[in-house]
Amino acid sequence: MTLKKGMIASIGVGGVILILALIIQRFPVQTEPYYIAIVGPMAGEDRENGISMQESAKLCLDRVKKEGKLKGKRIELLYFNDQNDRRTALKIASQITGDDRILFVIGHFYSMSAEVAGAMYRRSGIPAITASAASDTLTATNDWYFRTIPDNTSIARYTANYISHILKKNRVSIIYDKGDYGASIFRSFKAAAGELAIEIPSQWSFDKESKEGQRQINSIIAELRTLKDPGVLYFATQAPEAVQILSSVKYPGTDYTVIGPDTFCSSSFITHFNRYPSERRKCGYFTDGIYAISPFLSEMGGKTTHHFVNDYEERYGKKPSWVACCYYDAMLMAVNAIEKSDIEEALGVQKIRRTLRDRLADHTSADLAIDGVTGKLFFDQNRTIKRPYYLGYYKYQKLTPYFTQYTVSGEVAPSERKKVKGVGLEDERIIDNRPHTETRIVYVGFDLNEIENVNFERKTNTLDFYLWFRFQEAFDKQALIFPDAVSPIQLGDPIIEDWTEPGNLSTFHIRSDFKETFDLSRYPFDTASLTVRFYDQNRSRQQMIFLPDILQSPFGETTHKEWMPSLFGWRGAGLKCFETIKTIFLSEKISAPFSEYVVRVLLKRDQAPGLAARFLTPLILLCGLLYLSHFISGKGRGPLGILYTGVTLIIAMYHLLVHTHFPGAAMHMRYIFYMLYGLAFLSATITLVALFMEKEGVNLAKIRVLRQAGRIGFPLLLFIGGIALFLV
Amino acid sequence: MRHPFVRYIYIGIIICVPLLSGLIFLHAYGHFFSSLSDFFFKKDKIHIALVAPLESKTGQQIRNAVELYLNGIHHRVKGRPVELHYYNDIQSAENAEETALEIINESECLVVLGHHSNIESVSAGKIYKKNEMPAITASASAEAVTSNNRWYFRIIPNARVEAMLIAHYLAKNFSDSAITLLYEDEAYSQTLMLHFIATINRRGLVINNQLNISDLDGEEAANSMISRVTPESIVFIAASASQGAKALTLLKNSGKKITIFGPEEFATENFITLLEKVADPKKGIGFYLNNLYCATPYMSAIANDEGHLFEKKFIRAYGEPPVWEAACYYDALDMAIEAIEKTVIERMTHIKENRRRVRDALDGFFSSREALEGLVEDLYFNSDRDVIRPYAMARYFESRLISAPLQYQTILDEKTDTGDLFEGIMKGSAINMDGRVMRNISIIYTWIDDISVEEIDFKNETCSLQFHLSLRHITGLEFDAGKFYFADAIEDISPGKPIMEEVGPEMTSHTYQIRGRFRMPSDFSRFPFDRRIVAIRLMNKETITNTVRYLPDELKIARPDNRLVKDKSLPGSADGWRITAQSCYEDFATKHSHLGLYRFAESNFKINHSRFNVEIDLTRKYYSIAGAFLPIIIILLGLYLLILKYPDETNPSSATMPILLFIVNGLYHGFLLYRFPWNALMTLEYGILTLYLVLLFFEGIVIGGGKSAWTVKVMGALKFFYPICTVAGCVVFYLIYGGM
Q: Which positions 187-246 of B are in contact with A (Cβ < 8 Å)?
């Protein structure tokens, strides 16, 4: 007995220990986390930028954690509001450097805050990454500061090249703020303009910090109004002052070409304009046609960008700004460094920070780059990422890529490009010591007129639609390939051509048959997806990108309500238009990415619940009938035989009908039939066994138990089966 | 002994049936309860005044039109009931003033619709202006009504626009003829005259004769007028209905071959009445009216889809087509209701403030972006609170008013619509009216008849048709048979050479023999009460602009031997079907697309193409419908047999019958699913699914109740109630689903 008790006791203790171990492993003792400080304008006028910084950082960290990349390393975020003010920035920097839990700084937003804080970070040895402060000296003179966007010199060079070669203007008047930001851009631009023989007929400056600032601005406005042709107006200023000037001189009817830096790309730029009733009453009254140089435009990104944009939109319900994109990359670099570093407490925070800084600095070439949202992330000798700036322009308060962009050449190796027809060398231009290609942007719109002949057997349908292209330089529309078309589509003559609106417009009317793959497995709750896709077979994505037109929202719906033509038995569930990147093999070894435009028309069945009821009602009632069979006494042998035969017959009939109506479709509905077959078999078996037992004179109590088992088991099995089907 | 679960079934039924019935009742008669709640909770009503010639047929039609509108909105706006107050317009300035004062002081009306006549509107307008009461007229076209009166709005174009349009029409189509202008000293006539002369001169034409017809009572005056009218000329009678009727009679009696134009007053019932008084009864009213042109603010020829829908509803409700005043007052009420919708209405004690707000809201319809969709075109006011849109040009054929072969339509986008606008204006195919550019629309009178249905393939939803297509248009129109197509044709059908062609001085007609296969989409969701429509739809090939309208040829509609389908016979493949209706009408194929143009996207641009439709409705023959119900009838009878024989001592197991019937029901359901597409639930399926439930219920009773006293009692009661409920259920089913 004692031995036995002892055995039981030891087994019990062992079990408890095991359980404890499991619990500890699942819920480890919480160690103190390390932090990444996000520093920016978390409140006030620029809080949108601060919010973007927070959102993108959080998204990045969550994703990295989900991928399990920070094993054993607890990293959280801390947010600081530097109010874009030097003093506050210094104070926060002091706070950060004094906190041993903080490994990295992401920020500051503005150059002036970053400069003063950067000095402290350098002294204290804490690495910092900014994705917005573009001052040249910030990273050049501080080996603890990194930057994921190009510097002011780059901004100026790109701006000058866009003005000269893309907008084809050679006279630019500059308005700049005498502060660090404006002055820096002004100097850089002047140098760049000199290189490209751009004339600067006028320049105005103001000092917004001084008492005379407003008077100076008023004076600029007055002078502008008197000038007949100042050329392009380039604003090297912050948003509020630019808005004040523009609202006084630019309105419909004036023909100023206005271009601004990254401050024109933030939502606060539009927010400032929306204070004016004219802009509120007519969207785009002031802002339509304003150009802006942006560190990044998500439309220009690749697959990684698309995934990020989708994730961001899904999480935050809005499109990410350039701030979100670039700060995501900053965060990505930081967590990448953390992932590759040993950050045990025993090492000491100084060493950890140095290690992290060194890991960051390792990314010095394309081979060692990280794939970021904005492209390949690697630093030059000044710890700055070199990447093109993009030219956006405003229409209806939305900043969209202009019709021509500079992208870095190199998707297809130069030596290979010559070999392949159609993907040839374009005119390359050297900007910032790197070869660039002009990439054409073509905006595409789609309006559906009719859907006909939806044939699930042949998997085809007929679509009648308008397709319009908005572009700057003509392109060969006959080179467009529609892979889903049953027979090749020739576009023919456009029904509309217009050259008066920004960009050239060509609209075509197309009516053709398209192939589809229908997924009927969830009938009648299935969604049919009718797809129209095309790409230009002669131009890779480096040369041409198709993007959804502004009159067709990039994230789904068209701009007017009646987009869905009538189609008997179906209703519109959505219209999605987007660009994807299609890799095409040009030869055995050479492939290139091509821009493919995709339109997806989503349809749901009308009366889906009714169609479900058409099958579910008789099937459920058959279950009822089967259940009732458990209550028919032994004397009802005749009806039982008819019942089971009839029920099985009807189930088989419906099953066959579904199978013949949707041949080849693996439908979820079949599981309902299988379940019913099973229940019918079970019921018949129980009844037959009970009858047999009765005949053999078995104890009535046992027969009663069997029958009760059937009466209870049947609904239970039905319930479990129903849950399982629902989950499936 | 009854099993316990049966009790739960009974309880469930007792709860569910009344609940379900109550819900259905509320759904069907919900508005009854809302009216009841209004009565008890006294929500402030919205009052609107209507001033019209109530004792005339026109007035009655106006009344019908506004009632039709109010029925459509369930007599409610902003959750408040709407009440219309009717006042009589007797074309008297004194009456107008009295009516106006009564409306302002003794009623809580927020807005006045009317007055009907010019004389009353001008007089009442002064009172409304002084007392700040907004008014909308849809019939008084005199400029003085809205001029300098910010409280008066007009939903039809004014007399100035009317005169200009008539002049443009004349200049475009009768530029070679001499022009005579008849006028009188009255203000309305003077307005017509002035603007007519100015426009004619601008078009480079001259008016050969201008005759004052203020006094036509004497023989001398009459003869003088007749003698000065040139034969083979065009005469524009810019006069009121009374003098116009006299002048018309004299001109027609003279026997001179002249083409006569009149203003919109010539398109009214009042004009016909006045004409009847002065015309020679032996010649008949048709003699005088035949070939008389006049302008009218509304007719089907210029109506849009909303207008056509209004006409259909009006005819269905009142059995006759609406006169133009009815249609225009429908629009006026729509405008008034929209304005009230946009207004914050305080309690009726603040009536003056409410009226001011309504007026301000009316003022808000000042551009195409804020426009209201009317029955002809979008409605919005210019700075004089007038709507600028075209009049319809009409012509009498005997005593019926039909569309003239050319109309005008406002261009929505000048850059795209006309190509070279300046050239269009120079040629006369476009006119500029107060900044709104209007384009010529050619009317092609279309007719399809002698339709022979050669084959119907129900499974593939196609049919083979052969028919005659007649197209009649103004001589000189650049007509190209390749420009139209049949929208439902499976393959392109080329009309080929016409089998008959007639070129007259005014009109040219072509007749084609067409043969082809057409789509016949079907809506089987109402099976067995479904209909199939054999349709032929003719429209222009794709262009952005609509320069042609295909109107049913009213000359052919009027013919007593008119028929669409030859012999009304159907091929053998359509056994079990019969032709129940044939119709032809015009509507619009509308495409909502801005085509990528920013300026289209910023306006209400739609691509509208005129479409001529012939529809032949096929429904199943009664025996075919009965056949569809046969299995269900058998099942119901089988059930009744069960009830009657219950408890059946000769068959100890009554549970067999419901099971057998269940199987029959299932097999029939399967048969239907095999035969028909699965896109929608069929009407008959509701019956089948209900039967499943009923059969299971009976099975449950039989098994659960057995021969218990309670079950026997229930079955006994059902012997009486079952047939009643079944018949009632069938009647309700037929009423709901079988209405054809």
A: none
Classify residue A398: in a domain, yes or no: no
Q: Nearest CA of chain B to the CA of A298: how many Å?
A: 23
At B372-385, the pLDDT tens digits run 999 998 899 999 99
Same structural domain for residues A142 and A156?
A: no
In a domain, A424, yes or no: no
Q: Which of A447, A624, A654 sits opposite B670 (nearest CB)?
A: A654
Cα–Cα nearest to B656, from B611, B703, B689, B610: B703
Name residues whose C-beta falls within 8 Å of residue A387's C-beta, 6 or more positions apart in sequence. A149, A150, A295, A296, A374, A375, A408
B92 inside domain: yes
A475 CA: distance to closest CA in chain B (Å): 18
Q: Which of B303, B300, B338 is nearest to B321 (CA)?
A: B300
Average pLDDT along chain A: 86
| pLDDT confidence bin for A637, thresholds 50/70/90 | low
**Predicted pLDDT of residue A126:** 94
CA distance B266 to B293: 9
CB proximity A607 to B under 8 Å: yes
C-alpha Rg value of chain B to the nearest Å = 32
Contact A569 B680 (CB under 8 A): yes
pTM: 0.83
Residue A394 is assigned to a structural domain of this protein: no
Proportion of chain A above pLDDT 70, given as a percent = 91
3-state secondary structure (DSSP) of residue B423 = helix
**Domain limits at B21?**
1-42
What is each CA distance from A91 to A51, A142, A146, in whole angstroms? 21, 19, 21
pLDDT, position A560? 43
Same domain, B174 and B271: yes
Predicted confidence at residue B413, as pLDDT, reads 61
Residues A284 and A307 in one domain: no
Rounded CA-CA distance B122/B95 in Å is 12
Q: Is residue B376 part of a domain?
A: no
Q: Which of residues 566-625 of B touch A (CB under 8 A)?
A: 591-599, 601
B120 occurs within a structural domain: yes
* pLDDT band, residue A419 (cuts 50/70/90): very low
Q: Which residues make Cβ contacts (< 8 Å) with residue B492, sequence separation at least 6? A: B485
Q: Are residues B141 and B177 in the same domain?
A: no
Could you tell me if B537 and B666 lie in one domain?
no
List the domain range (segments joined by +) for residue A646. Answer: 609-727
| Residues in B touching A621 (Cβ below 8 Å) | 662, 692-693, 695-696
- Chain A nearest CA to B660, separation (Å): 7
- In this prediction, residue A186 carries a pLDDT of 92
Token pair of A580 as six digits: 């994807």
Do A583 and A569 belong together in one domain? yes
Q: How many C-beta atoms surround the C-beta of residue A314 within 10 A?
A: 8
Same domain, B491 and B554: yes
Contacts of A618 in chain B (CB under 8 A): 666, 669, 689, 692
In a domain, A128, yes or no: yes
* Sole residue written with tokens 């192939």: A515
Question: Which ranges constitute the DSSP H helices of B645-682?
Answer: 656-675
B680 and B567 within one domain: no
Do residue B615 and residue B666 come from a single domain?
A: no
By 3-state DSSP, what share of chain B in percent is helix, strand and coil, each rounded to 5?
A: 45, 25, 30
**Confidence bin at B363 (pLDDT 50/70/90):** very high
Residues in A touching B373 (Cβ below 8 Å): none
Residue of A nearest to B703 (CA): A632
Report CA-CA distances (Å) from B105 to B120, B127, B336, B367: 18, 11, 20, 33
Whether B251 shows a pLDDT value over 70: the answer reads: yes
Residue range B138-166: mean pLDDT, rounded = 93
Q: What CATH number is attached to the domain comprising A618? A: 1.20.58.390
Number of domains, chain A: 5
